[in-house]
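During the first year of the project, the team set up a workflow for recording each protein of interest as an amino acid sequence followed immediately by a discrete structure-token representation. This format lets reviewers and collaborators read both layers of information side by side without switching files. As required by the reporting guidelines, we include two representative entries from the current panel. The first entry is reproduced here exactly as it appears in our internal archive.
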Amino acid sequence: MQAWRVHTPGEPIEAMRLEEVPEPVPGEGEVRLRVLAANVNFPDALLARGQYQIRPPLPFTPGVEVCGETEDGRRVIANPSLPHGGFAEYVTAPARALLPAPESLDDAEAAALHIGYQTGWFGLHRRARLRSGETLLVHAAAGGVGSAAVQLGKAAGATVIGVVGGKAKARTAEDLGCDLVIDRTAEDLVGRVKEFTGGRGADVVYDPVGGDAYTASAKCVAFEGRIVVVGFASGTIPTPALNHALVKNYTILGLHWGLYAAKEPAAILACHTELTRLAAEGAVKPLVSERLPLTAAADAVQRLADGTTTGRLVVVPAQAPARTADTAQDGAAR
């Protein structure tokens, strides 16, 4: 089979090589899946660079979430077992962690529903306790992680402020339904948030960026507001001034979705059930901006790392026939 592999850590476009390799053999408690679609995530870039908290043995294949097909024909969502990641024609994955792919979504959308939306749901509901009528500020609102948070915030009845970088991304955030879109490259983020909220600030801030985004968040978070720290796509890890949190009476919350999989796996399934319901109702739908062949995976990971993409880039191996939401539903009916 074909698979992208990293032999020496580096920038994805240089470190990832498309090679012919043996098909992976499932270990105890694992199943083999034919990859229907593999979503591109920021951790894939960190893996290629050797900067992720998990460092699989070299050589390895990146790709942390897929929509795949089991040998008995079931369509599922899975996190592949590294070092055999998702940018390949076949993967292995823990059998106990397989989730049914929503029938309302096609393969690429189903692959993109998992980590980003689960992170958003746990961040907004389990950690921040977002309530209907509150104001939610989402950084990188036009990206894969941010767009999921925007949709989940709207589904929860929040007023959503989307922060983006550039006019093209602003249009994407508007199309997602943001009540206010702020182009951080051309506007005063803090001033616009305070103006829009009548001086109160944002009740909840969802921050997958870090760096300057976090600094601005601390300046425009509301009394008893919550800042959810999701990641550091900017490459800069903030060093919060805790005296500032004390004086302004706001909360800083960390969110590492992987810990739920390890410590409370039942919560993952419950969250997926809720996300499946929201997808069926049309309240959430992954923003898949590009469906790419397997040969384009390294370029896709690099573009995501460079911050030039909107929505989700999803790799669809050529050997996997494309399935739409309609064909998925037809198959279920049969």
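The second entry, processed by the same pipeline in the following quarter, appears below.
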Amino acid sequence: MPVAVITDSTAHLPEGFAERFAVRVVPLHVLIDGAAALDGIDVGPVALAEALGRRRIVTTSRPTPGAFAAAYREALAEGADSVVSVHLSSEISGTWESAVLAAQEVGPDIVRVVDSRTTAMGLGFAVLHAAQAAGAGAAPEDVERAAVSAAGSSRTLFVVETLEYLRRGGRIGAAAALLGTALAVKPLLHIDDGRIAPLEKVRTMNRAIARLVELACQAAEDGPVEVAVHHLSSPDRAALLANSLEERLTVSGGCLVSELGAVIGAHTGPGVVGVVVQRKPDFSG
């Protein structure tokens, strides 16, 4: 395709989707007790959950600009005329900054970098919409617009067992106010203007899942939507949530269920379950 679409591993595209839509994925880094690994390549959800369960020290870091530059050059060498690179929110990671530095090195006239202001399948849906536009032969600016429009038309909601992992990683910001009551409630959070922010406090996990369904229905605005459910080490909860969403919403293509990878999972912890609702993007303007 004349426009190559590139993202990072926090998009958590369901298995096979990157290949199907010709999306290149640059992995973030995970360090377990100081040993470096690549997200989704060297370490996945099972290994992460085991490491967290053993209370090993897990930290994450962004890809280097060199890793992005190599991906851009590879795409161009294989026939692409330009690149649209779509990444997780710059408010919660330096990944977008690394991509921008790489684009400046390779050529800002041929590499466009998009800050999705979200992550997980909020990012993933933006990437897939961009890839579909690229596959249809769209111009680079229109592929970029497809990503931006999709990202702006998504809602990401999730509930965690504890805020401890988000606190350790410095990713909760205002959600720190929920600490101290975390043992008595299940914190329900969302992505708000690129940041992880508190939304509500719910007494039980069952009630939290029911509330996720209610909020997803509000986000859908009675229209057809694409939906993804994420979890880490909670397949039963994810299945319950996905089934409830499919009963209540008009879901295009069925509800996608994807286990979180090592980077996002390291910050949310085992037991997390969430939903991304993707409305039909508005491409005006």
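For the second entry, the following points were noted during internal review. The mean pLDDT is 90. The longest strand covers residues 195-202. Both points are flagged for discussion at the upcoming steering committee meeting.
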